[in-house]
């Protein structure tokens, strides 16, 4: 599934992923508080999400619900990053993360556990 979402669309999706189905006006109120968007801006972004098929709308009250899971979008974005920045080689991404020195001991431990678990499967 090819799901390319812009940052603004991700803000709308994050609201729906966290809270589930909600009215467009409630999404607009939330994003006004959180990021300062106008109602018009939110509705424009919702319209783009509808056109991309990542949310559905039903009436009455313009209720929106996500049609894709966050994990699907994360997977697509990760694969796109690996293709674009690391020549399609996922190990180069991991090497860059480890080499940056920004991973905590706990994060490194979880990474090792994940690799060990995958090798044993």
Please explain how this structure is put together:
This protein is mainly alpha-helical and about 120 residues long. It has helices at about 5-20, 25-35, 40-50, 70-85, 90-100, 105-120; strands at about 20-25, 55-60, 65. The chain has a three-stranded antiparallel beta sheet. The radius of gyration is 18 Å and the shape is elongated. The two termini are about 25 Å apart.
State the helicity in percent bands: 55-70%
Report the order of strands and helices: HEHHEEHHH
Major β-sheet annotation: 3 strands, antiparallel
Q: Overall mean pLDDT score?
A: 93
Low-confidence blocks of residues: none
- Which outline best applies? elongated
Rg value: 18 Å
Number of helices: 6
Portion in beta strands: 5-15%
- Strand order, biggest sheet? 1-3-2
User: What structural class do the secondary elements suggest?
Assistant: mainly alpha
Give the N-terminus to C-terminus distance in angstroms: 26 Å
Number of strands: 3
Feature tags:
single chain; mainly alpha
Give the SSE layout.
Layout: H1 7-19, E1 22-23, H2 24-35, H3 39-52, E2 55-58, E3 63-66, H4 70-86, H5 90-99, H6 105-120
Compact summary:
This protein is mainly α and 121 residues long.
């Amino acid at each position: 599934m090819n799901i390319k979402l812009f940052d603004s669309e991700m803000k709308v999706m994050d609201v729906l992923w966290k809270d589930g189905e909600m009215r467009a006006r409630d999404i607009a109120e939330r994003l006004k508080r959180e990021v300062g968007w106008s109602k018009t801006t939110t509705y424009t972004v919702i319209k783009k999400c509808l056109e991309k098929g990542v949310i559905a709308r039903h009436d009455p009250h313009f209720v929106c619900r996500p049609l894709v899971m966050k994990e699907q979008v994360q997977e697509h974005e990760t694969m796109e990053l690996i293709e674009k920045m690391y020549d399609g080689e996922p190990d180069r991404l991991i090497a860059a993360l480890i080499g940056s020195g920004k991973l905590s001991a706990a994060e490194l431990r979880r990474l090792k556990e994940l690799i060990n678990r995958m090798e044993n499967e």
